[in-house]
Amino acid sequence: MKMSCRPPENFKHFVMKTVFLTLFALLLLCDVMANTINIADRGAKGDGKTDNTAIIQQAINECQQGTVLIPQGNYLTGPLVLKSDIRLYLEYGATLTGIPDMKKYPRPAKGGTPSLLHAADAANITICGEGTIDGQGDHPSFQLGDDSKTGAIRPMLLHMERCRHITVKDVHIRNAAYWVQKYEGCDDVTLHALKIYSHGNYNNDGIDISGSSNVLISDCYIDTDDDALCFKSEVNASCENITVSNCVLRSNCNALKFGTGSFSGFKNIAVSNIAIHKASEENRRHWKKNMPWMGITTDTTVIAGIALEVVDGGSMDQVIISGVAMKDVQTPVFIRLGDRNRGNTISSLKNVIISNIIAQSASQLTSSITGIPGYYVENVSISHVIITTPGGAANSNKPVPENIAAYPENRMFGTTLPAAAFYLRHVKNISFEDIRVNTLQPDARPAFVLDDVSGFENNRCWVNGTTATVSILKN
């Protein structure tokens, strides 16, 4: 039988397709390489001494729809302005280091805060790679005190204003002189797998989302001196349509915070699968030493694991928080509707669901949910919660001050609260289900204290294995 040496038609098609795809891939690679500017090729020196600001900024200006590559090395730079349609890629072993000189960071002409990396009214910006952005915030030139009371404005590391389609992923961000990063009035923001570490200065918030919408935050590790993850609405826009998942939050202040700035508000925000711990450094707070009256049992603590605050006339609506494990927190949950007289209207706070929480408290200052006279926190559901507290508090009939205009913080009502689990005041329609509180020492306070509360429901709530007590001060 005669065998044919001709390849089958399907094999020829396979070879032709493979060749075509290979050529196409090579063309794409050439196109990508053609649109990549390596700052070292432009003369940047990664010696940690040379000022590379002009070279890097020129690369950014030239590289439209391309990549500015930061190769291995330590590249010193002053403020940089990011443009639309650009990708800033930091190789593993690359560090973009801010020059530690306040003169390099003049205040913007229209006011505001300077920053190392800044973009305004831009779109399609990506910052990625396994390199590091270091603000040198611990340098003596940046040590100006809390909130720059000397008048000088310390720079943020990264500030995006009114930008669209922003992605920041994989990079290490560390050592800010002020806030680590702020996204203000932005739309479509993705923050993924960021490693954030900042303990060199005051006001070291990890991530601040201000008046932005359609935001996805996932798989981030945040370890900061100030609030770890903070939502604000200081511009004429709410924080809306935001998802946070699979993050570790470590802080010497509040771990997950909504506020303090709350002029517009917060809507449609879901937070899930979060681990909260004390910060790995404690350089300036020293809560246990400075506030002995709080009964703090651990040297380093988080102020509040979950802090929901609207105090400037804005609204909070449809916030869901689930799957949170927290340890070494002074107060597990702090919810506050207040009035700092900064807005034209009184704030509103409603439709909040908190579930599946495990908390280890390190103080006697327990959770609270409070409004103000005539303005109520409404429609709150809290379920499937286990809280372990130090206990050891005496029963107290001491009046709790209203402090309507005070700065919202867990200690705003004084040295203690009259409840062992939750203190509620000016609240309508709130339900607790499957709440278990364990006190390490006997606690004489009732589990729940209600003051001007209507529509209260509790089902399967226990303290140390016995049915939780409820004290009603006023209905």
UniProtKB/TrEMBL annotation:
The keyword Transmembrane helix does not apply. The keyword rRNA processing does not apply. GO terms for molecular function: polygalacturonase activity. One of its GO terms (biological process) is carbohydrate metabolic process. Keywords: Glycosidase, Hydrolase. InterPro entries: GH28_Enzymes, Glyco_hydro_28, PbH1, Pectin_lyas_fold, Pectin_lyase_fold/virulence. SUPFAM superfamilies: Pectin lyase-like (SSF51126). Belongs to the glycosyl hydrolase 28 family. This is Polygalacturonase. It comes from Chitinophaga flava.
